[in-house]
């Protein structure tokens, strides 16, 4: 009986010791905090409600926001300006883990808010040759405004040269840790290092994403759950509004072979779309961790648009991003091959073992992608031979190669057959006049890719229903 009484006493004493009051005082807030905004506390004490009016911090006599809380045990919390879009961040304006406090351990808690995620931090890392071209560049296609960044080559002001241009999305994350969501790409550091090594570097145009409008602007087709679908207007903005302005006000090489577009995730999707739709404007496309899953229309669009000019695509993703990403990228590479954009020189598929869907992966892969796109003979993109020595014919369930012109070669020829969605359905080697028996179930229009050591060509083949 005595042990039971002692145990109850100890439990009761412990609970009492963990109960209490605390005054939380914010001794310093970010300089860019809007003066009209209230500061709230959200946590386990109020069901993580980010804008509960009962949990507003009010100014004390010293002008510092404070709040008095009463409770027991431990709590976790964060500060907001009324929503999770306006939550506090770390010193770089990035994710800050939950704060914690145990009642009864202190009567007063003095805290500092380092930054707000939506407004960025104070640890600016942008190089001196990165400038804000315009805080509010007008987008007539949307009747809205957007911040535009520029990376200018270190020798831009000292020479009269014209420079290649790379257009990139999610500008907040490219140059400056203070404005980035979860770390920057370090585009400026990478290119400045290339410059020090004697390599040519481009002008980079960074376009901020639109926050809540990001999904709409970066997706050409809607998703049944996530919406979107205004990507074509965003593409028009770049081609019809932004690029003409850049070309007029800066010394650029305006032709397509010196003009590229690059982005990641949804930014990768829209980079692919822009490059395919405006092949007369862009010859180079960097497609990182592309959200091809967002809408399968991207495959039909690519196939139906077809190859209108020589292109270079650098498609990259990590094995640990999603279960389907690698398959989706491979399917897109097959689709590009099917329309005549293929070969190691025209399409580079980079699969990074262990790569995750984050800025670290994109930062680490940016330099290699830039070099492959811009520095590996960008003036001489490999093109298919216009003088095709063999053609593919269908007859009675079989495909046969026939010689054209005065071709005397017999092969072997590498033959691949692609469905219109880019799926590879046949991959074999044959000699001329040797028939190929097709797999059962094939019918409709297919693309045959035929090549040997000296050339490669693409040809449409119609296979009737059998």
What does this structure look like?
This protein is an alpha/beta fold. It has three domains: about 120 residues, Immunoglobulins (Immunoglobulin-like, Sandwich); about 250 residues, Alpha/Beta hydrolase fold, catalytic domain (Rossmann fold, 3-Layer(aba) Sandwich); about 70 residues, Immunoglobulin-like (Sandwich), CATH 2.60.40. Helix content is about 20%, strand content about 30%. It is built from eight helices and 24 strands. The chain has an eight-stranded mixed β-sheet, with helices on both faces. A four-stranded mixed β-sheet has the order 3-4-1-8. Helix 5 runs parallel beside helix 6. The longest helix is centred in the middle third of the chain and has 19 residues. The radius of gyration is 29 Å and the shape is elongated. The termini are far apart. About 35% of the residues are buried. The N terminus is likely disordered.
Blueprint of the fold:
Layout: H1 2-17, E1 19-28, E2 40-43, E3 58-59, E4 65-72, E5 74-80, E6 88-89, E7 99-102, E8 108-112, E9 115-116, E10 130-139, E11 144-151, E12 165-168, H2 187-196, E13 203-207, H3 214-218, H4 231-249, E14 259-264, H5 266-277, E15 284-288, H6 297-305, E16 312-318, H7 325-338, E17 347-352, H8 359-375, E18 390-395, E19 398-403, E20 413-418, E21 424-430, E22 436-437, E23 444-451, E24 456-463
Parallel strand pairs: 1-8, 12-13, 12-14, 14-15, 15-16, 16-17
Antiparallel strand pairs: 1-4, 2-5, 3-4, 5-7, 6-9, 10-11, 11-13, 18-19, 19-22, 20-21, 20-23, 23-24
